[in-house]
Structures are given as structure tokens and as C-alpha cells.
Specification:
By secondary structure, the chain is α+β, with helices and mostly antiparallel strands. It contains 5 helices and 9 strands.
Length: about 210
């Protein structure tokens, strides 16, 4: 029954839940209202900034998977905690934790395909929405994560969640991998400046005339 359900719905959404060891169909059904008939469409820069409730740069300090819920709501989630280095939108505080569906507890793994995987020490700029209620609380799932890395010259640069250089915010929502070929990644400061400019523009547009 579970395998037939997966095959029947695979074309309707790109995010597929796999449970290694055994498949919990009630979990799949519980989250399916968020997934049925949808695909993960890469948001453009304007959508990223507008939809995000919080935007911040931070470093992962803890990743804690655990079981939560009872009955049909029994599932593994991972609490990923960041030390906030710079808040760009909203007020995440000095430390902020997102709750993501999936993780490994006692040899049992619940995996959400296309979901970003975090480890302690990762440095990221995140676009967060619906934390605590959305199964992956990032705008566009992995599209809402940008990795902060250093190039050979020691410059802090921005990579997409798929580890493609972010050369220009205009590449977002398009064929990012092709556009990135042969181009240098933006600096972290330039990316944050672009975010702040977009936020200022949004404030001007919403002011009463």
C-alpha cells in the first residue's frame, strides 16, 4: 500500500519522504497536505527576501534529532541551533533554533529529499519562514540556505545550498548551475548589502503615499 502510494504521488511533488528500516505511512499522510500537488520551485531573490520572516547569518552550534509526537504524529525532527552573527531581517536573538523534519535516532532515519543537511561548524545565511509549522522552515527548502565559505584568497564568499557559486542575485530562480559556470562568487558583504537594499525598497513601496 505504501509503495503504491509513493508511486502514484511521485509526479505530484519533488520532495519525497523515505524511512529506512520501515516506512511510516501515517507520517507521510500527516505531512502530505503540505506537499500534494506541489513542486519545489526555486524562488527568485525578491521572493526570498519578501517571504522570509527572518534572515540571518549564523554558525551551527548544535544539531539534535529526536522523536516527537504520538500516534500518527510520531516522527523524527532535528533541532538545528545557530549562533547568530548578523540579523538582517527580524529579530532572531543571539541564538536561534530551527525545527526540521527528519534525522537519525537509534539507527532509524527519516529523510526528506532535497532538505539541507547541517553539521556543527557550518556557516550559513538563512531565509526562514514558518519555523515550527513548516516541515523544512526555509523559503524554497534548500533554496533558502546559502553557505558562507572562503575562497583561495581567504575572501568570504556565498555559495547556494547546492554549492554553486552565487555570482549575482539575479541568477536566483533561474538555471543557477549554468549561470554560475566560470563566474566568481559574490562576497558575503555584497550579498548582505543586496538583501538590505531589497528590504529598504520594500519599506518604501509599502509606505502610504
Amino acid at each position: 500500500m505504501a509503495s503504491r502510494y509513493l508511486r502514484r504521488n511521485r509526479k505530484n511533488f519533488s520532495t519525497v519522504i523515505r524511512y529506512f528500516g520501515f516506512l511510516l505511512l501515517p507520517i507521510f499522510l500527516a505531512i502530505n497536505p503540505q506537499l500534494r500537488g506541489t513542486t519545489v520551485i526555486a524562488p527568485d531573490f525578491d521572493q526570498l527576501v519578501t517571504r522570509a520572516e527572518l534572515i540571518f547569518q549564523g554558525e551551527v552550534t548544535d544539531v539534535r534529532p529526536q522523536w516527537i509526537g504520538e500516534g500518527a504524529e510520531h516522527r523524527i525532527v532535528s533541532f538545528v541551533t545557530f549562533k547568530v552573527a548578523d540579523a538582517l531581517k527580524g529579530n532572531p536573538g543571539a541564538s536561534y533554533t530551527i525545527r526540521m523534519l527528519g534525522g537519525t535516532v537509534g539507527g532509524q532515519t527519516l529523510e526528506v529529499s532535497d532538505a539541507p543537511k547541517f553539521k556543527i561548524g557550518d556557516r550559513d545565511i538563512l531565509f526562514v519562514e514558518n519555523n515550527g509549522s513548516q516541515f523544512i522552515p526555509l523559503v524554497g527548502i534548500h533554496h533558502g540556505r546559502f553557505r558562507v565559505e572562503r575562497d583561495e584568497a581567504g575572501r568570504e564568499i556565498v555559495m547556494t545550498g547546492e554549492r554553486q557559486p552565487l555570482a549575482d542575485v539575479e541568477q536566483l530562480g533561474k538555471d543557477e548551475a549554468t549561470i554560475a559556470i566560470g563566474r566568481a562568487a559574490m562576497s558575503v558583504n555584497d550579498f548582505k548589502a543586496a538583501i538590505q537594499t531589497k528590504l529598504r525598497q520594500a519599506q518604501v513601496n509599502t509606505r502610504p503615499h
